[in-house]
Amino acid sequence: MKRIFLIVLIAGALAGLGVHQARSSVATVSTPVITEPAEDGQQINPFDVHMVAGPFAGTPGESHVCTDWEIRNASDEVVWTAPCVTGAGLVHVHLGDGTFVGQLEGRNQLNSSEAYRLRVRFLGDAPPPQSDWSDWAVREFGTTSSTAIQPLVVSDVSRIPDPRWRDEAGGDIVLPAVQTRRARLRLDVSAGGTALEFAGVDGIENVVTNAQPLSAHGALRAILEAGDAGLELPPSVVSFTDGSGQDREVYLPAVTLAPGETAAFWIGEAGGAFLDASDGDPNATPVFSEPVNEPPVPWSVREPGFRIERFATGLRLPVNVAFVPQNAEPNPDDPFFYVTELYGTIKLVSRSGAVSDYATNLLNFDPTGSFPGSGEKGLAGIAVEPVSGDVFVSSVFAVAGQTDFHFPEVRRLHSTDGGRTAATQTPILQFPDEPLGASHQSSNVSIGPDGKLYVHIGDGLLTSPAQNLDSVRGKILRVELDGAPPADNPFYDGADGLTAKDFVFAWGLRNPFGGAWREADGAHWEVENGPGTDRLAKIEAGRNYRWDGSDGSMSNYAAYNWFPSHAPVNIAFTQLSTFGGSGFPPAKLNHAYVSESGPTYAPGPAGLGKRITEFVLDGAGNLVSGPQALVEYIGAGRGTAVALAAGPDGLYFSDLYKNFGASNPTEAGASVFRIFWTGTVDFTGDVGAGAAPLTVRFHEASNVPEASAWHWEFGDGTSSDEREPVHVSTSGGSFDVRLTVTGSGGQAHRQKAAFVVVQAPPRELEPAHPSPRPTPRVLAPR
To answer: How far is the CA of 497 from the CAs of 20, 91, 494, 502, in angstroms?
Structure first.
């Protein structure tokens, strides 16, 4: 199973650790029951194996000292081990909590598409010490195949717009002047041939050669040749439009080459470069195993009319996003949204994308630890009160004397400088007797239409708290903005003092990571992680969602279940009550969007997650269609989809990790992306082919919102800014046509290959009037 944070409730006292000794002749500790993996033969991502076992059962009064965990391969060799683990690891560990050994020593994941065996045993504290080990519990499982990086496949480079090669600042890259042999950049295709070439000539500009279309599509490869002068280049990007009319960007790393040297890189679908160890061998097979860089946006939009951009970056484990109330006249430096960073900071992001601190040091403990594993805890949910602008955040806090657990809380932060920094912070909700571990914690907060605060708290990886109204774990709570329970809550009883059930709005939940309010039914909706099955559900006051420890119970009251798990972590609705629909078209209003995080800290695309999916629900909350991918991760890095919120001009989501080049999962460098609607561009012409001069009347047929400008390029060096121009082609050839339309969502374009085909004019004939008779040629006698 996959999820971002894993918080575990552990019962029982902890005893001192020691060296393993022979077990007692009669074991009093029962064999553990493995609940994750959930069943023999389950297929699990090799980067993110969740292991859960319990409960501990020994003689009366006996305590759980520690747990041995190990994974063996099909040859029964130990490849991963976590011996005598304590704390949260008593019943729940990840690969990051142990050590790879034997054949997998030095690795950080299991092999793909292989069979493995998990073994678990418990140690009790019955005398003599270190002797009362249970028998081993065993679970057989397999690993899924890794999702391959897809190549960027082309067969041609269009002549419009002009191909460009620029550095990161936007300046043109110019190759050195020719000596004997030119420096070059070639974009070759594995099917054979060069699609585009930049060559040095005079040190002032490059000679750009755009070859004819190749005979077949193939994987793109960039080959740099130093020439006689050597070559030193910064990171750069080549932008062009391929033969299908799709805009492409190829991101090349910095290179330093001696005279005569070459460097070659295969190009992935997202535009990132991968080392080509063959140095450009024309017979080499594309290999995408060694990425050398990653594009700024390693995501692909899967629905037409949408675009995605990186809006802000430099964040550290950004978990959730909450927007400030919309200003009538926004300025670039105005507060735009807040981001909770897992390790205790709230960041403010301005409308220009600038990032600053709103509040820091919000945790009273050091959250660092193995990741995935014990380090996945801290700050999580966030909401902004629309009247005061106060910020509410959920987290866990430490209690003196407790080292293995943390406890749920909600704080209210107030600003006196227009929301730029927090001046005060006040705990409004704390439960110091409800222990949690990493990561089934207080994970989501929102303000409902009734003005109340709704707080999600995970079950702590034990079933019993979710089914116990005397615990706040496994619940959604409803509280006043000062932390008091409203008297109209489903289980409120003012006669017996303040108890957990006074706060409960809904119960019987496992790990309800995400929640959002739906305008169409006025209801709160949640997305929830299960052991192997995830749930999307409408929340009803007082309802028991009947999580009982089984995957089957996750189907109760579900509008949709993910099986196997995709780790849905946040949900947002595009609706008129939320910023007027976030700029989405009418056909997309009242749809639900869910961020699926997939496996924890895994590189590359994921079959089970790393995407934003779309759901259509009817008025009663029944599923009409979905999930349908809106955007998917296609890069080689470790980014995923986590935070998700509907903003004034699109959906915003975070990728949690620094996507590429990080030394560890908690290094700063993660980003927030914006998905926005630009509309689709289309056009027709009354004539498609003919002899020159050929007159074509173009008709614009786009649905770009609030279109205000049009720009046509006709492929013959001419252009027009009329909405529906008439163009005359005077020379022969096959011409691509491109239309760019500017609307309220920015620019959108459409390019159609060989849209106009013109036959060259006939050769000029001799004049019809009489011409002088030629002088006769005199032949010499034989």
So the answer is: 48, 34, 6, 9
Q: What is d(CA 676, CA 707) in angstroms, rounded to the nearest whole number? A: 15
Task: In whole angstroms, give the CA distance from residue 471 to residue 480.
Answer: 19
190: Cα separation from own chain's centroid: 30
> DSSP letters along 103-126, please?
GGTT-SSPPTT-EEEEEEEEEE-P
Q: Which residues contact 113 (CB under 8 A, 6 or more apart)?
A: 142, 143, 144, 145
Distance in angstroms between the alpha carbons of the first and the last residue of the chain: 103
Question: For 587, phi and psi rounded to 5 degrees?
Answer: -70, -15
- pLDDT > 50? residue 367: yes
Q: Which two tokens stand for residue 192?
A: 């054979």
Q: What is the DSSP letter of 185?
A: E
Non-local (6+) Cβ contacts of 773 within 8 A are none
Contact yes or no for 487/480 (Cβ under 8 A) = no
Assess whether the previous peptide bond of 564 is cis (omega < 30° from 0). yes
Residue of 479, 448, 446, 443 whose CA lies nearest to 459? 443
The answer to whether 456 and 443 have CB atoms below 8 angstroms apart is yes
Structure tokens at 331: 């300025």
| Three-state DSSP class for residue 500 | helix
Shortest CA distance to 239 belongs to which of 158, 165, 310, 175? 165
Contact 478, 456 (CB under 8 A): no
Residue among 402, 208, 343 nearest 668 (CA): 343
Backbone angles phi, psi at 466, to 5 degrees: -65, -30
Question: By the 8 A CB rule, do 409 and 431 touch?
Answer: yes
What confidence tens digit (pLDDT) does each residue in 340-353 have?
Answer: 999 999 999 999 99
Query: What number is the average pLDDT over the span 689-716?
Result: 96
Report how far apart, in Å, the C-alpha atoms of 343 and of each of 319, 365, 397, 429, 643 are: 10, 10, 12, 20, 15
Counting beta carbons within 10 angstroms of the beta carbon of residue 245, is it exposed (0 to 12), middle (13 to 18) or buried (19 or more)? middle
Cα–Cα distance, 28 to 308 (Å, whole number): 59
652: left (phi over 0), alpha (psi -120 to 50) or beta: beta
| Non-local CB neighbours of 558 within 8 Å, separated by 6+ positions | 535, 536, 537
Quick one: tokens of 85? Answer: 């683990």
26/428 Cα distance (integer angstroms): 51
Q: What is the per-residue burial (b if ≥16 Cβ within 10 Å, else e) of 368-378?
A: ebbbbbbbbbb
Give pTM, 2 decimals.
Answer: 0.85
In 3D space, the residue among 712, 716, 718 whose CA is nearest the CA of residue 700 turns out to be: 712
Whether omega for the bond prior to residue 693 falls within 30 degrees of 0, making it cis, is yes
Backbone angles phi, psi at 514, to 5 degrees: -120, 150
Which is nearest to 425 in space by CA: 368, 478, 363? 363
Which residue from 208, 239, 195, 245 is spatially nearest to 736, judged by alpha carbons?
245
Which helix H or strand E contains 572, and what residues bound it?
Answer: strand 568-574
Rounded (10°) CA dihedral 621, 627, 633, 639? 40
Helix (H) or strand (E) holding 425: strand 424-430
What are 206-260's pLDDT values in tens digits? 999 999 988 778 899 999 999 888 999 999 999 999 988 899 999 999 999 999 9
The encoded tokens of residue 107 equal 């690795």
Return the structure tokens found at 350.
């301005």
Question: What are the C-alpha distances in Å from 137 to residues 9, 60, 122, 723?
Answer: 21, 22, 9, 72
Contacts of 637 (CB under 8 A, 6+ apart): 291, 294, 298, 603, 604, 657, 659, 660, 661
Rg (CA), the chain: 32
> Residue 763 and residue 768: Cα distance in Å, rounded?
15
758: its two tokens: 């013109």
Q: Evaluate the CA torsion angle 276, 277, 281, 282 in order and state its sign.
A: negative
